[in-house]
Amino acid sequence: MVNGAGTSVVTTQVVNGQNTYNYTDAGGNAATVTVSRPNGGTPTMTSGYSSNGIALSGAVWIINPNTSAGEPIPGYNSGLTFDFSSPINAFGFEVGDWATCCMAGTRPASIQSTYGVPATGSGLWIAFDGGTATLPANALSANDNPGYAAANSYTNFIGAIDSASTFSKVTFFGDGFGEYLVAGGTLRFASVPIGSVGGGGLNVAEPSTLITWGLGLSILGFLGWRQRAAGKRIPSGHPLLA
Q1: What confidence tier does 192 reach under pLDDT thresholds 50, 70, 90?
Q2: Is 212 helix (H, G, I), strand (E, B) or coil?
Q3: CA atoms within 13 A on the CB side of 72
Q4: Fewer CB within 10 A of the terminal residue: the chain, N end or C end?
Q5: What is the mean pLDDT of residues 199-228?
Q6: Organism's domain of life (predicted)?
Q7: E strands in 129-201
Q8: Terminal-residue alpha carbon distance, the chain
Q9: How far apart are CA 131 and CA 128, in angstroms?
Q10: Would the pTM of this model clear 0.90, i.e. be above it?
Q11: How confident is the model at residue 58 (pLDDT cuts 50, 70, 90)?
């Protein structure tokens, strides 16, 4: 998908105990991304995650959704924020242990009405540059996890592309309280040419320029597009964005 837009993907494997990683920005300059909790804390890490014999491709940050005071959305502060020193417009990572349990809790009525989300489910939320969070993935059963439906494995890859602009921050969190939920594996970065996605035979039907690609889970599928590989499991070491 990204290669088809005329650019290349830079990959960085996540290492246990390391929260800052190098990448190359759209101008070919060296840049860094730093991972923290949305409230500024340091996330806990572990060496990896596997499910039904399928392993994520590197170390992972533990999300373990829980609530704390002052959150805009329950679970927000237990998530991850990726801060980029130089803007990009395509980014992806691997996720494990989503939709394993914990789908019967009821979201506060105020959250349901403000964000237009269902009352129940184990959700994955995402926000860009401190903007309004959205709930692009919500599981009411394990089979709502494409990795599980395809291979009985709670492993997925998610990513997002904005072909109209760039972003400098991504916040990702879950609200399946009681789940382990991890993210990491291998980080993937790219800067596609502005306007390159949504035309040129890339098979995108989008009501917005922010779309997603993925192997296992198209996390922003509510925007109307799912990449043809969605629903397949992650083979360890696969070049997911090629």
Answers
A1: low
A2: coil
A3: 15
A4: C
A5: 30
A6: Bacteria
A7: 134-139, 155-162, 167-174, 182-190
A8: 6
A9: 5
A10: no
A11: very high
